[in-house]
Amino acid sequence: MKIVGRTAQTVAALWIINVWFNRFGKDTGYRGGGATNMQEEFAEYGFSKNQMYAVGAAKVSLATLMLAGHAAPKLVRPASTGLAMFMLGAIGMHIKVKDPIKRSMPAITVLTLSTVAAVLADGSD
Fold it and tell me: What is the DSSP letter of 1?
């Protein structure tokens, strides 16, 4: 089970980092509403550019802590739980703009991975 938790922790973290650094300005087919990039997507949800960057900074920070959790396991549970909460919010935003379920699948996947990582984290150093 330890391998499952660590794999979930790594995949969720790298997924978030990829989205915010490599796919930020790209149309992915999973953007909310009619958005073709991250800034348009947050605007669809009613968020400002500053709020978008704050959310991004928080998600990337949590993802970084999840990766650091390989060296310091006590970081995994709180970071994974925080990221899972952000993913619940992301799913809520997709529901708010009446997106088809397909557009919520990345958030659902990262929610699942983060939850698995949090549940299976051992928290010892």
Answer: -
* 20 has a pLDDT exceeding 90: yes
pTM of the model: 0.93
Please report the pLDDT score of residue 5 as a whole number. 95
Selection from 56, 73, 57, 60 nearest residue 13 by Cα: 60
Q: Specify the amino acid at residue 115.
A: T
Question: CB–CB of 39/52 below 8 Å?
Answer: yes
Provide the greatest CA pair distance for the chain: 45
- The residue written with tokens 């958005």 in the block is 35
Cα dist from 64 to 1, 40, 50, 75, 86, whole Å: 22, 25, 21, 10, 15
